[in-house]
Amino acid sequence: MTRAYLGLGANLGDREASIRGALARLDATPGIRVVRQSTLRETEPVGGPPQGPYLNGVAEIDTTLPAYALLALCKACERDAGRDFDAERNAPRPLDLDVLLFGDERIDTRDLVVPHPRMHERSFVAQPLAELGVALPPAPTFPRVVHAPDEFTALAIEWTRGDCRTGLVPTMGALHEGHVSLMRRARRECDRVAATIFVNPLQFDQSADLEAYPRDLDRDLAICRDAGVDAVFAPAPASMYPEAFASHVAVGSEAEGMEGAVRAGHFAGVATVVAKLFVVARADRAYFGEKDAQQLAVVRRLAIDLGVGTEIVGCPIVRESDGLAMSSRNARLGPRDRAASTVLHRALRVARDAFREGERSAAALVASARAQLDTEPLCATEYLELRHERTLASLGDDALPDTGARMLVAARFDTDSACETRLIDNMSLAGD
């Protein structure tokens, strides 16, 4: 016999009857004996849409069934009680049965994690367990922080063996809502989510920029935790690039022009670190923001050419209320330059609106955006280009198709001081 503990809950219909009916069914199943049950208590729901309070408790059982057979029986009870498994996460339900503890076993798979990873945070679980005299195991740390590449790979393999679909969100830290949007999407679409926080020295062409890049791991970890990230890979540069490291990944036309023209070696550094992260993480999907559109095109080319087996997911730009694309660099803008920086979004919108009104001349669309940029004296435009929507290949002077193109801009602000800030932005002319 294995001693196991089940979380009990319901907040639709006759809650107590649903719970007691499920316990009676379990007790009548060969190989299961319900030993005792905690008091049922009313609690407020955690997350999800607006809904009524739950009735919660814990049941102690002895069973000869394996953990997955017990889980399957619990799901059958929920289904027969009328639970909708296609409903949104944390939706109200007539019955909720969770396997909290299963002897001394440690299980980490797509369908079952034991001990239950969040029970320390749920008073409606911790208090009933205490009532039954059960000591909680040590609370897991979320997210799990891994520094060594081989340890991160071992974790990735563990998730793979558990049949988990994994999502990777590569970052350099200094996290903001743009990064959070990537993590939340990965959380919705994947069973496990890993983020990387690594300030990659290979993609900086100025040592001063590398040294000045903001670093606050504790703050970033707190953001990852709130976004539901399971693990964070935060390696030291020496572990990614040992002393004898000599291999670099070169990319083709996607890296030419625009950022590739003004930041020597930048995309080779990006491609090299992304290739290493893909090897280490073995993720099913990797999430990148469309704000760095040229970087996204480079990564897509890399994934195709190297056959990494990781699906590249581009995610929409997240903007401030005044349209400025979110970036870690925004914090470096003074008040005057912060106000001036909104000209980037206005210029892109001018071109998009002209396209929607029927303008198909690439030259005319670029001219309309440039005229808007020229209205702001604090904006020093580096480039303004119209490129192919997805590949960012250069476009000729022919009229644009109705499928449109993507306009990209880079500019510097506060160019008269040593603290000038460089910003980039882009917009699909045919998009929302």
Structure class? alpha/beta
How much helix is in the residues? 25-40%
Rg calculated over all Cα atoms: 26 Å
SSE string: EHEEEHEEEHEHEHEHHEHHHEHEHHHEEE
Average of the residue pLDDT scores = 94
Number of domains: 3
> What spatial order of strands do you see in the largest sheet?
8-11-10-9-12-13
**Main beta sheet:** 6 strands, parallel
CATH fold name of the largest domain: Rossmann fold
Q: How would you describe this structure to a colleague?
A:
With 432 residues, the chain is an alpha/beta fold. It folds into three domains: 2-131, 7,8-Dihydro-6-hydroxymethylpterin-pyrophosphokinase HPPK (Alpha-Beta Plaits), CATH 3.30.70; 144-315, HUPs (Rossmann fold, 3-Layer(aba) Sandwich); 328-428, 2-Layer Sandwich (Pantoate--beta-alanine Ligase, Chain: A,domain 2). The protein has helices spanning 15-27, 67-80, 123-131, 149-161, 177-189, 207-212, 217-226, 237-240, 259-262, 266-281, 293-306, 335-340, 343-356, 362-373, and strands spanning 2-10, 32-37, 41-43, 54-63, 96-102, 107-108, 113-114, 144-146, 166-171, 192-197, 231-233, 285-289, 311-315, 379-387, 406-413, 421-428. It has a six-stranded parallel beta sheet, sandwiched between helices. Strands 1, 2, 3, 4 and 5 form a five-stranded antiparallel beta sheet that branches. Helix 10 crosses helix 11 and helix 13 packs antiparallel against helix 14 (362-373). The longest helix has 16 residues, at 266-281.
